[in-house]
Design goal:
69% helix
């Protein structure tokens, strides 16, 4: 079996397992799509141990910086005019998202950006039936907090990426 076929089979099987877990036993504690973002990031970053570490560190760092950006926008602690508050706070936090690329563990800027962008997108999603959206839970400890929920999803997705790569290596021989 070719390595490409082995990887396709491995990802297909483990992708099904991931979806089952995220929608079943881990429902509310992991997001399918966020895990797949980290899974893809793992392979995009090199598909090795360093990639696993950089994917996890970068996506979580991005999620934390996104949480800070959202809190700044919502609270506007500097009292900026409404029209410029969000752009200024995003610009400042995105600077910190990228400037850390000199650190080995945070050197994959796309991983940092994936974590930031996905966390912001989820946080700004439509509120649930109870009228409370993810944005309102930014300071809540636990899985309702989008930074925590997305970070857990990124870790699990990156680990699934690593396992799928190892499995592909075993069945492709």
């Amino acid at each position: 079996m070719s390595q490409l076929t082995a990887l396709a089979v491995s990802i297909a099987v483990l992708g099904g397992v991931w979806v089952f877990l995220a929608l079943g036993p881990l429902a509310g504690n992991a997001l399918v799509w966020a895990g797949f973002i980290a899974w893809g990031c793992y392979f995009h970053t090199g598909g090795d141990t360093a990639a696993l570490q950089k994917t996890i560190a970068g996506t979580i760092y991005g999620a934390v910086i996104a949480g800070i950006a959202l809190l700044l926008v919502v609270n506007n602690p500097v009292g900026l005019p409404a029209a410029v508050a969000a752009p200024v706070y995003v610009a400042v936090t995105v600077f910190f998202l990228v400037i850390v690329a000199g650190l080995n563990l945070l050197s994959v800027v796309p991983a940092n950006v994936y974590g930031y962008a996905a966390t912001v997108a989820y946080s700004l999603s439509v509120p649930t039936a109870d009228g409370v959206g993810p944005l309102a839970s930014l300071t809540v400890p636990g899985m309702a907090n989008p930074v925590i929920l997305l970070s857990v999803s990124y870790v699990l997705g990156a680990v699934f990426g690593m396992v799928s790569g190892k499995l592909a290596g075993m069945i492709g021989k």
